[in-house]
Amino acid sequence: MVNTSPPVYEQIAEVIRRQIHDGDYLVGDKLPSENELCEIHKVARGTIRRAINGLIAEGLLESEKGKGTFVTSPESKTLLWNFGSLTDRLNDTSERALAKVLEQTVVIRGNRKMLRLKRLRSIETENTVIPISLDISFLPVDLLPGIEKYDFEDESIYRILRGKNRNVKADWYYRIFRLNRAQTFQSQHFPISTNHDGLLQNFS
Questions:
Q1: CATH number of 74-189
Q2: ∠ CA 201-184-14 to the nearest 5 degrees?
Q3: Model confidence over 71-117: pLDDT tens digits?
Q4: Which residues form the HTH gntR-type domain (predicted)?
Q5: Phi and psi for 80 in degrees, rounded to 5?
Q6: Are 70 and 30 in contact (CB under 8 A)?
Q7: Which CATH number fits domain 8-71: 1.10.10.10, 1.10.260.40, 3.40.50.300, 3.40.50.2000?
């Protein structure tokens, strides 16, 4: 039988790549040392180096001599002043915004308790459902008590923030664009294969 599994170094690169996209490693974070990664993945140093070098070539990591390997982000940043939810934008159209919650868990990010919310966003139009984005949001639990109890398949994040006793309103935000390769978990929800180029947007 022919082994169709990708090489081990590519599998490790995929794990690290997904950790970056999922927010486990943020821009500027230092990766574990090569020795630590060898222990984590139970492989030789050469395998780790091939994985790291591949991610450096993609622009996801950068190596600083004597300091280590860090998460980086070649990106384009745009400042936007007017924005709202997808649900709001489709209110006056025949289309309907849909959300499927893929993950809704409370995590510690930095020293803060956050609700990590992963949703597949789609638009329903003329009895056809079209997936348009895979969103990952981090919401501070201390500033938004009870936020982890909401049903985000029925509720818009923006409407919850603007709701009773909250009145949280953002006047502007940054939209950051980065060319990125599709990952396995993304290809499961969109009609694309892994390693196809796509556009990753970060909002802050």
A1: 3.40.1410
A2: 85
A3: 886 554 444 444 556 676 666 777 888 888 988 999 887 788 889 88
A4: 6-74
A5: -120, 145
A6: yes
A7: 1.10.10.10
